[in-house]
Write a structure and sequence with these properties.
Elements lengths: L5 E5 L2 E4 L3 E5 L4 H13 L2 E3 L8 E5 L4 E4 L3 H13 L1
Length: 84
Amino acid sequence: MPRERLVNIGFGNFVPANRVVSIVAPASLPMKRLREDARAEGRLIDATQGRKTRSILVTDSNHVILSAIQPETISQRFAQEEGD
């Protein structure tokens, strides 16, 4: 059985790499709506540790994860993990 790769999304929080569908910046109106809808439906996971949200990760289970790490940084971490 292959080992599941975990990617650090900041402050000791990890997500399974194969479950993330997209990593987006939170500033646009559609992303704000996505966050509000996920919160209302109980699908929101806040991994910011009380810091400003800098990226939003969407998973294949339709969960929305908030991170305080820039999207570029998280995507680099995904790329590094693939190289290992």
